Amino acid sequence: MSKSQMGVKLVDPETVFNTSYDVVIVGAGIAGAIVAKQLSEQGKTVLILEAGTGEGLTLKGFQGYVETFYSAVNKNPNSPYPYNPNAPSPTDGLYSYFEEKGPLPLSGSYTRVLGGTTMHWEGKTIRMLPEDFKLRTNYGQGLDWPINYEDLQPYYRKAEYEIGVAGDVEQQKELGVTFKKNYVFPMKELPPSYLDKQVRKGLEKQKVSIGEETKELKLSTFPQGRNSEPNPDYTKYNHGYNFVPEGMASVNPVEYGERCQGNANCVPICPVQAKYDARKTLNTIAFPERVHLLPQAVASQVEIDSATGRVVAIHYKRYRDKNSPQHTVGTAKGRLFVLAAGAVENAKLMLASNLPSTSGLMGCNLMDHPFLLAWALMPKVTGTMRGPIVTSGISTFRQGAFRKQQCAFAIDIHNDGWGWSGTGATDVVRDAIDSKHKYGKELHEELKNRISKQLLLAFMCELPADPSNRVSIHPDYKDQLGNYRPVIHFDIPDYCKKTFAYARNLSRTIFKLLGAEDHTHYGKSDPAYFKYQGEDYWFRGGNHFSGTHVMGTNKNNSVVDKNQRSWDYQNLYLLGAGSMPSIGAGNTTLSIAALAFLASKQMFKDLN
Amino acid sequence: MTKRAKHIKTVEDLHQYLKDAMKIEHATLPPYLTALYSLKPGSNLEAFHMIRAIAVEEMLHLTLVVNVFNAVGGNIEGVLTDSEFVPHYPTYLPTGATDFQVNVEKFSREALETFCNIERSEDMKEESSSDNVSEEEPSQPKEFLLPIFGSCADGRKNQPEQKFFSIGQFYQEVIDGFMDLYEQEGQNLFSSDSSKQISREYYYNGAGEIVKVTNLDSALKALYIIQNQGEGSRKGEIYDSEKKLCHYYRFQQLELGRYYVIDESNPINSDQPDNPTGDSFTVDWDAVYPVLENAKLSDYPQGSQLYTHGQEFQKAYSKFLAQIEKSFDGNPKQLIPAVGEMFRLKELANSLIRNPIPGKKGVNGAPIYR
Lengths: 608, 370
Description:
The complex is a heterodimer of chains A (608) and B (370). Chain A is α/β, with parallel strands linked by helices and 608 residues long.
């Protein structure tokens, strides 16, 4: 009698050695999980190699992450995930994983655990604008995509279902996103926070100019991969059924989808699992016997048969203890191979395998969304620290003719205070108690006045593709398993710095309109500090690394084709934001997911 | 015409049974919530999630009953806020079954046994009919159903006293009575005003479907969901009509320390009752706060912080019931902030459960629901 639960089957290296799979996937993040789910449902056998540990699949494992986060002194995007020297993540540990060669640091991070960077993502699910796909044609910047928005639109819908997106289509339409007639997201928008409402009130009908244009400072809510109320109108996009949100991701299903409770630590971890992460996709695979997963297996080489020009195997290093470099080596064989380890790791693995691609663009065109932050104290208590990290923002600057002169951007209104700027609530508490010796009612007042009024605006800026921003490798820089650490060359062009300057001025205007007291200060000692037109700035990395195996129209101008298949090796796919030729001013995860659906379709054809 | 129902003869009878149903659904909440809150943070994750999910489903059931009640012209005002709506614990279940009592107590083997009893199905006992039960225990106190809302006077006092072995049996009587009355009354049974119906947009948890009740189909659907989620749809199966594990077997997993496996694509291949084959886990019976059983306000020394917290919880719980009653009475939008109040209840419960009672060594406070 065959009994099954949903999910994946954890296997050992021996099983992997003795099995030939239809598909071998490197990386159990959102792209790999979607491909595994899609192809297994169509009868294909799949192996996923995951560099990180796999404990997040169990209830206990996930709770362990939550506890680690609670007890971490420094709350950063990777603080729930114990440092793993065998599969390090950027910004973790004592030494830096990235070898930053400058001139500016890429900064930012990703997460090498099962679930990938969705284990720390904030959860915004932004569709790119139609005009973003033709950045070169429209604005003379960066690169064009080989497909357009309409090609990707049906896959955006699939991605929105898989992630469980909450949002308001009408507001997105006003921003220039197009939708199929009568489309709604699976769930209704997350309600704007009290802080949002105060900002909205202060900016009502206010306009500013940018280039030749005038823009309204109009707030809109962000679509998010976070449980709210299912939208009854979505049933027609769900075979007549109501949308049922996924809840706790656990090998043993114990809980239905819980709704966002506004714990305000979405990055890095949602304690009630209202936020989507790739474990939810992995744990809802209907045929676990078809999807094998080998954790603690770090892919180290892609092997090509030079006679046929096809990939024949992925070599990996398997460790038992994350703190010991001891490992065994193994090989995974299959018909089709998928690298889904993130933009930086995908490129690094290809370069480590001496496969720079015909175009030589492997690792080049590294993009991110650099963020400029500006912070102030609101005149009255606004209840900061309640709600998911961001509910609303100003997204009217994502489009416009000004993109010929300066980059597009979007503004987040942070519900979690100034934390990201480096002076968070903890610092206020320390100062009030240790330096000012406050206690009782006075302490309460002090905290209320200094924390509950905090407003942080984050300006997410577009960065166009530039081949000199890149990931490379060098034998001097390796981790303890002997795998390469990424060497990063990165700079921000004046095209973006112009927007930084614009954004800083805009923040002054906004604070003035709100009667807020500007506390923004960019210290020179910050590693990401720079001067532009006489003013000081620093930026924060956006963790949206992309462009490193860019898609294009032929093997000389790109690494992969429009289906994300390698031009050079017909049974190799490189998935993720690494394939994106431009990223607009939109967070990348939804597009990564949509592209994974699109690629799965072609993979299925290839396999038959 | 043959009547299906044994006792429900009139629409008034039906109203009374539905009020009793609300009392039954609610009566499980204080024990489930207290056991849930008594778990030490970070321990017994399996128990935490299972009990929590079931408590949420009991609230769904309460809401479904209210939808049926409002649909057939019931007046909800004063029902949840009745001084006798919250039982005096220890209590027999308002189904009238007298072979076990329900305590409000910490998570323990005994508590779990009670929970299984609450969610048991008639198949689990040979002598399943209510007559047999009363014959076996002739000396037990009789009636638990009728006096609930001081309704003895209104037409039911002459009826024989009823007992139901399981909640499922109780609902079978409701369903039977419903069908009988529908045959007599047709669509007239249903009120034309659907503004009091709680629909999906107001009630969210993902714990199954909320059903707007406007006709026989939707009424039966609502009642079947309640019946099935507790004890299963058919004899010898561990899952309900939504292919989810029934409450009884979810609790049993904690007794046995092992998960049941349900094959959703082919449910027949699922585990058999009493023989789970899934992953095993350990229940840490000691990682529990030693809360006072069936606590009353008078158990806390007057003037103590615990007394104040006990009072605050009591008030907050009454307020919570009043708020949801109001939202059931044509103000569905108010259900959302009312559910938000539960965060406050949890906080208040913690301030009781995590603190020892002065003068009682090794015994902590507990929430007081009435």
